[in-house]
Amino acid sequence: MKLSILDQSPISSNQTAQEALNESLRLAQVGEELGYTRYWIAEHHDLPGLACSVPEVMLSYIGAGTSKIRIGSGAVLLPYYRPYKVAETYNMLSTLFPNRIDIGIGRAPGGSAEATNALSDTFLQQVWDMPKAVEELLHFIQRDFPQDHPYSKISAAPVPDIAPEVWLLGTSKKSALLAAENGLSYAFGHFMSENDGKEMITQYLDAFESKKSEKHPYVILTVSVICAETTERAEEIALSSFIWGIQQGKGEGQQGIPSIEEAKNYKLTENEKQSLEKRKQKTIIGNPITVKQQLAELKKYYHADEMMIVTITHSPEDRLQSYRLIANA
């Protein structure tokens, strides 16, 4: 089973943002040692508890500290940016780190309405124009604009020997069909979706096959996982991220991911208890044998080619150990 890492660069209640970002590098290094296929880092804006707002800067840091694991964005929030600038940025990374760069493209705001407005006056319009932006980005990456196109004479320099690989990330029918239409691999965010992921992936595969392209469809399923030596310990560790998620929903959580003790002492309302149970249902929690089995079942059910794991814990050591146990299993 191919395994990969999605890192949201979480900040724990006893950490600085700098420490959290250094732990992201350590995670990528450990992932490389363990044989994980790729490491992606997410883009978030003004979200307390998450340190990475500029993936391309972190990818320079991650790339310099690793040697072979594929690295990329999960995702570049394309409605904020011009495709040409994204192509320049990731061509630059591909020049520095040949045959290792992925451009994961998404359309989510990645933060509050205020942060969205601060980043762009036209975000909603750009979401609407996403298909055009994806097409333009691909032309810059593949260097195949029609000769009469106004951008046909410019390149997104530096042009690498091996172009970065473009992915589409999403949780909707729109994203699935857009990926298929452009012949792109597709990453479905199971961990953040209430939609029927199997339906989306089936639509992607069917639409891709109907194009009769020389390319082949490829699916990553991104899943939230907490693994520990015992299921009891994994459930204890997982409580921190669940409580933090509930705090975020209330406009709290500015102090970062609470410790296990802080999470245990947090007073929940009845509605919050129900919310916690829903969060548990979307997360694989257990010992290595249980986690391996559930990952295999999800992979088969969703027809996924690769499983990408996101893990948020208070302790960086618990997070690294979770990835170690899964890889070893």
TrEMBL record:
Looking at the record, the residues that make up the Luciferase-like domain are: 1-300
**Per the record's keyword annotation, is Heme included, yes or no?**
no
Single Gene Ontology MF annotation = oxidoreductase activity
Keyword Oxidoreductase found: yes
Q: What is its EC number?
A: 1.-.-.-
Fetch the Pfam families from UniProt: Bac_luciferase
User: Which Gene3D superfamilies does the record associate with it?
Assistant: Luciferase-like domain
What superkingdom does the record give? Answer: Bacteria
Which keywords does this chain's UniProt record carry?
Oxidoreductase
Family per UniProt?
To bacterial alkanal monooxygenase alpha and beta chains.
Specify the protein name.
LLM class flavin-dependent oxidoreductase
